[in-house]
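Bumping my old thread because nobody answered last time. Still need a sequence for this structure:
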């Protein structure tokens, strides 16, 4: 059992690294595409930017969050196979915790939670679909005969 816990923790660490690496790469591309001069290192944690479809910085934050979640979900599928949903939820909880620590307050902004929730759904759906497609012969299906 301790070996299984170690594998899970190692996979979780890999998923955290993948998530934030992908997030910062996507942020760099979005900052370049929208011609925003300064990349803020705290951008993945910024929930205080006023929502406006005319504010390019806000658009970069939203677009990069959604793209990072989708790409991370696909990469998680390659790493953890059918457990994408579990790692996606855990990574999102870690991201909320880190965001609260970095910004020194708990996010109570509705648009941030909506973007985070839609990103989580996209991460789970994209990752689970890819995992099912790639590993469908290895999936564990529950036996429902007893119900």
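Sorry it took so long. Here it is:
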């Amino acid at each position: 059992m301790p070996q299984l816990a170690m594998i899970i923790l190692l996979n979780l660490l890999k998923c955290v690294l993948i998530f934030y690496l992908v997030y910062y790469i996507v942020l760099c591309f979005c900052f370049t595409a929208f011609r925003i001069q300064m990349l803020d290192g705290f951008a993945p944690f910024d929930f205080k930017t006023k929502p406006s479809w005319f504010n390019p910085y806000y658009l970069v934050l939203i677009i990069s969050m959604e793209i990072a979640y989708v790409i991370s979900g696909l990469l998680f599928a390659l790493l953890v196979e059918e457990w994408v949903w579990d790692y996606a939820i855990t990574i999102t909880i870690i991201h909320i915790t880190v965001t609260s620590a970095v910004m020194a307050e708990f996010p109570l902004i509705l648009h941030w939670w909506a973007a985070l929730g839609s990103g989580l759904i996209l991460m789970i759906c994209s990752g689970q679909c890819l995992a099912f497609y790639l590993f469908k012969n290895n999936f564990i299906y529950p036996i429902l005969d007893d119900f």
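The CA atoms of residues 21 and 69 lie 11 Å apart. Let me know if any region looks off to you.
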